[in-house]
Amino acid sequence: MLLRVFRRYPMEIILVGMYIFLVFSAPGFATVDNQLNVLRNVTMQGIIAFGMTMIIISGEIDLSIGSGVAFSGCVTAWVTRELSPMLGPYPAIALGAVAAMTLLFFIGVMTGKLRQHFNMPSFITTLGLLTVLSGAANLITGGFPITSFPYEFNFLGSGFLFGIPFPVYIFVAVFGIVYFLMNFTSFGRAIYAVGGNLEAARLSGIDVWRTKTLALGITGIFTAIAGVLIASQILSGSASAARGWELDVISAVIIGGTSLFGGKGAVRGTLIGVLFLGVIVNGMTLLNVSEYWQLVVRGMLIIAAVLMNHALDRQTQK
Amino acid sequence: MTAVIETDALTKVYGNVVALDAFSHRFERSRIHALMGKNGSGKSTLVKMLSGVVQPSRGSMSLGGRSAVFKTPRDAFDANIVTVHQELSLVPELSVAENIFLGRMPRTTTLGVPRIHWKAAQTATRALLDTMGLDISPTTRVADLSVGQQQVVEIAKAMSFDPALLLLDEPTSALASKEVDMLFDLLRRLKDRGVTMMYISHRMSELAEIADTVTVLRDGHHIGSVEMAQSSNEDIIDMMFGDIARAKRPGRKTSIDAETPILSVRNLTRAHAFDDISFDLKRGEVLGIAGMLGAGRTEVLRAIFGADPYDSGEVIIDGEKADTANPRAMTALGLGYTPENRKEVGLVQAHSVHSNLSIANLPQIAPKGLINKRAEKPGVQRQIEQLHIKVDHADDPVSSLSGGNQQKVVIGKWLNTDPKILFFDEPSRGVDVHAKQQIFQIIWEQAERGLSSIFVSTELEELLEVCDRILVMKEGRLIGELDPAETTLTQLYSACMGEL
């Protein structure tokens, strides 16, 4: 009985176990402030991780999101700087954010089209884009952060609403959207089918390329949202923001039980994966574990999580 | 004449099925022996025993007068029995010489450092190809050769082992007719040099051309061995099929509407696949397409369904011309297709029976993109019940089901789309006898309810049993139409061979 529950919710149970451990052993872990801090820290990567879950289940991947976040923050800051004198700061920021979302949406669509028409693996395209977008962000900023935002803009990334960090609302909203898409729409079904067996999905009348392309595009929008939130948090558009995020985000998705081979996984798992990583980083910091050790532990966790999921899969197949 | 290989009461039993029953025969030296029989006749079992893949349950073999026991393929190989398989086993990126000497390249040393003796390999290859009368350079990359030349290299590789017996398993299945001629030239030259060959093929016309004797198996029994020159094709086909009782379909209750066809195909053509295909499918009809492997049956079905493109021609569904040929558009027009390779492309194996049953009807259960679970669930339950899909729970992965039940899931997913037309491509492949009858029953029941279907099968008996009308295809063309009620198996087989 207990084993069956564990098989069903392995990461949830490990997360709860770790949580209880930290409550008793890590000084300052159980305070409200710290809990809110953990939540705030996971939101930005979490928003992207929900989109990444769709991409990976559809059988693709996006390695460019780290640069995508920096790029969209810089685009927003640049548009704000250029248009504020004409439109005033807030319309300019809004326009900048919309511009960033539109750009990243179409870059995602382009990745999908390259895959469709030239059989270009999204792995390669987005690996290229990782460098391209980083370069573009630096071109926009000229190498120095653009500090064009009014101070009040800081609310988006750092403010509180009803005592909860504002980004958490967006995090919850994005989770809700992706959860809804994946579980209640034909688009979600198509994502699973396309990633599970591309040809079987095609022969069942599913528009396989539209499905993959849309997953990449939507995640582009999420990446831009995270970029705007980061820009708000640091009150500038910086080309060096979010460096290396792609691996954190993909780690969270994998720890959440989604298969890198596509067709299998759930956004609920990704939520657990995101919280798991956030809690463990926070806990280790509070326990005074050195940053280098944190890296080692986080890396090993990814391997352990995948091993465990494989083992559980084999058990259920028996 | 001396026998190169002789079998004595050779028997293979799998469980309680006798795959080959007391096969005793002498295969004489320097001749080409054809082996014939329909699927399940025991000919592949015989070949597997000769090549050491499986071991006989009873009986014995002797090679050149000495008893031969093959425990592994290696044993057969060491006894100089070499098999050329249907699928090529060459490494495309390597040269002809490297392929022929794969794993046994001649070696030499330079300044004490061992290295491959490239020159010796090339000289040996050149010599081998010369004795076979082949004009292929030893240094050419195999990928740059035509399929026919690759098949010839495959045989050259086999010959480099100096075989006493060469087993050729459908060597022409991937070849164009010109390449077949080249291959046959080679086989005749080898025969003149004293090589004994055993040749397996389904193509009657080829056997008449190349074989000296033909040995016919049916249901595990050795029906007979005759000299090719002294027997007609009809004789051989009769030997293959015998006068077995034919399963009869139940009489039709509803009549077929012959007036307005539900599907009309006009001059459908794709280069190198099928040519000028025109036919009508009547409402409520089960139309069969017969033909040998590679006749183009599956290609035509896939093209109509929009899975593959076609060069020219028209597809008209219910009076409407289908302009966009892709599976999505064709599904919307009321077409469904259960593919021949169900495991690979018919199902999402890792997913549940439930989601596989509601993958094709997403537009119906989610008209605005939002899945209506109340519309979805009954569809899943209905198919599980009506098609008798054996599954504990609809959430179980489809991969845990037997072949027959998986096939029913594929059919069920299409019935959920409420199709007007359904294509059944080899629905009985890899399915046990009981499930096969259930599947036929489903096809008939649906036909009575007005579903029009096209049925394709390699098993000719099935076509006669299931269909209202049969079209015959050969080499990408429609060559005839038969009424199954007035056709014998022998006639249908001859028709597929192009001897109407």
Description:
The complex is a heterodimer of chains A (318) and B (500). With 318 residues, chain A is an all-alpha fold. Chain A has helices spanning 2-8, 10-25, 32-57, 65-87, 89-118, 122-141, 154-158, 166-184, 186-196, 198-203, 208-234, 245-255, 267-286, 291-317; strands at 160-161, 164-165. Chain A has a two-stranded antiparallel sheet. The longest helix of chain A has 30 residues, at 89-118. The mean pLDDT of chain A is 90. Chain B contains 18 helices and 22 strands. Chain B is 33% helix and 26% strand. Chain B has helices at residues 43-50, 73-78, 96-100, 118-131, 147-159, 177-192, 204-210, 233-241, 297-305, 327-332, 342-346, 353-357, 362-365, 373-386, 403-415, 433-448, 460-466, 489-496, and strands spanning 3-14, 17-28, 32-36, 58-63, 66-68, 81-84, 107-110, 113-116, 165-169, 196-200, 213-218, 221-227, 263-270, 274-281, 286-290, 312-317, 320-321, 335-338, 421-425, 452-456, 469-474, 477-482. Chain B has a 6-stranded mixed β-sheet with strand order 6-9-10-3-11-12, sandwiched between helices. A 6-stranded mixed β-sheet of chain B has the order 18-19-20-15-21-22, sandwiched between helices. A 4-stranded antiparallel β-sheet of chain B has the order 2-1-4-5, covered by helices on one side. Chain B has 2 domains: 3-241, P-loop containing nucleotide triphosphate hydrolases (Rossmann fold, 3-Layer(aba) Sandwich); 263-496, Rossmann fold. Chain B is globular and about 75 Å long. Chain B is an alpha/beta fold. The model of chain B has no long low-confidence stretch (mean pLDDT 86). Chain A binds chain B through residues 184-187, 189-190, 192-193, 196-197, 199-207, 263-264, 317, and chain B through 305, 307, 327-328, 330-332, 337, 339, 344-351, 355, 358-360, 362-363, 365-366, 369-371, 397, 400, 413, 417.
